[in-house]
Design the sequence.
C-alpha cells in the first residue's frame, strides 16, 4: 500500500478476525503510521449496504483503507467514492474454509510485478474488443459483451492500479449486465461456499441465471443466492481471469480460488467499483477450471494457458 509515516490507515473488519487485525495493526504502527480500526456490527456482516453512510464518512478522513471484513467490500459504491477522493484501498477479504487465517496462505507471496506484466498484456487484447467468450472442456459456452466498459486488474499493489487493488490477482472486466448468455458447467469453486465436488450446469439469458441444475452443489448455490433476497444477485457483472500461479483452486479460501492461474470466474451482483453500473445487496463469484477465452475472435487463453507468444512470460 506504500504507506508513509504520518499517514492514517483505516482498517475495516469484523468480530471474526480480531486476532489477525491486531497483528496487522501492530505491524503498521511500528512504521510510524496512525491506525484506526472500525468493527462492522454483526448484523451487517454479509450485507454492508445499510452501513455505508457511516463507512463513507470515515473513509474520506484516511489516506489508506484496508477492507479486511469476512466478505469483500471491493465492488461497492462507497469504495469507488473513497478512491476517487484520493484514498488508497486494499481489498483483503478474510473468509477461509479450513480454519486457517488468510494471512497464513502462501499465495499472498505472489510476485506483484509478474502479475502486472501478464495483466497488461492481456488487457491489450481485451480492451480492444467488444465481445468475450468462455468455453471449458466440460462443455461451458458463455458469451459476454463489454461495450463502453474498460477492463483492469488487481495485483496487490495500490500504485499499479490508481490506488485501487485487491489481494485477488486477476484481470477483471465489468461486463454489460444484461448481455451474458449460454451454459456454464461450474467445476471449480462456489466462492465463500468452497469447492465444487460434483460439477453442475447453470443457464443464462439476457445476463441472468435462469436455471441451476439441482445436484447437491447446485442446491447449495441456489439456497445461498436466495438468501440475498435480491433478484439482482442473479445477474453477471464481472468477467474474471486468475493470474496467481501460487494460488490453488481447492475451495479453502474464496480469494485464493478466484485468483488461481488457469481459472475463470463470473462475479454476480454488484459491480459498481469495478467500472460497471449495477447495484445489488452483494457480490458473489463462481469459478471454472481450464477456460478457453476468446477476445472477439482471438484466442487468448486455451484450457487455462495463455496462448499468445508475447504473453508467455512464466
Sequence:
Amino acid at each position: 500500500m506504500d504507506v508513509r509515516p504520518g499517514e492514517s490507515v483505516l482498517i475495516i473488519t469484523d468480530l471474526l478476525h480480531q486476532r489477525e487485525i491486531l497483528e496487522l495493526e501492530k505491524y503498521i504502527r511500528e512504521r510510524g503510521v496512525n491506525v484506526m480500526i472500525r468493527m462492522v456490527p454483526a448484523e451487517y456482516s454479509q450485507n454492508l449496504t445499510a452501513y455505508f453512510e457511516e463507512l463513507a464518512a470515515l473513509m474520506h478522513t484516511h489516506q489508506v483503507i484496508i477492507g479486511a471484513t469476512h466478505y469483500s467490500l471491493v465492488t461497492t459504491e462507497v469504495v469507488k467514492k473513497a478512491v476517487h477522493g484520493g484514498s488508497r484501498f486494499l481489498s483483503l477479504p478474510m473468509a477461509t474454509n479450513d480454519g486457517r487465517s488468510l494471512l497464513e496462505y502462501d499465495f499472498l507471496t505472489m510476485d506483484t510485478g509478474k502479475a502486472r506484466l501478464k495483466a497488461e498484456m492481456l488487457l491489450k487484447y481485451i480492451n480492444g474488443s467488444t465481445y468475450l467468450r468462455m468455453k471449458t472442456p466440460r462443455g461451458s459456452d458463455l458469451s459476454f459483451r463489454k461495450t463502453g466498459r474498460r477492463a483492469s486488474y488487481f495485483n496487490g499493489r495500490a500504485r499499479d492500479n490508481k490506488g485501487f487493488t485487491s489481494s485477488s490477482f486477476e484481470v477483471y472486466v465489468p461486463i454489460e449486465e444484461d448481455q451474458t448468455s449460454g451454459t456454464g458447467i461450474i467445476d471449480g469453486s462456489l466462492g465463500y461456499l468452497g469447492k465444487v465436488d460434483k460439477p453442475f450446469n447453470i443457464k443464462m439469458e439476457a445476463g441472468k441465471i435462469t436455471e441451476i441444475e439441482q445436484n447437491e452443489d447446485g442446491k447449495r448455490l441456489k439456497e445461498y443466492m436466495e438468501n440475498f433476497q435480491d433478484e439482482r444477485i442473479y445477474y453477471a457483472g464481472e468477467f474474471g481471469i486468475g493470474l496467481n500461479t501460487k494460488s490453488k483452486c481447492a475451495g479453502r479460501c474464496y480469494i485464493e480460488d478466484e485468483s488461481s492461474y488457469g481459472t475463470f470466474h463470473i462475479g454476480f451482483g454488484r459491480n459498481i467499483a469495478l467500472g460497471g453500473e449495477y447495484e445489488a445487496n452483494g457480490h458473489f463469484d463462481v469459478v471454472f477450471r481450464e477456460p478457453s477465452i476468446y477476445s472477439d475472435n482471438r484466442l487468448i487463453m486455451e484450457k487455462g494457458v495463455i496462448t499468445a507468444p508475447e504473453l508467455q512470460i512464466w
In short: Helices lie at 18-29, 52-59, 77-84, 112-126, 216-226, 254-259.
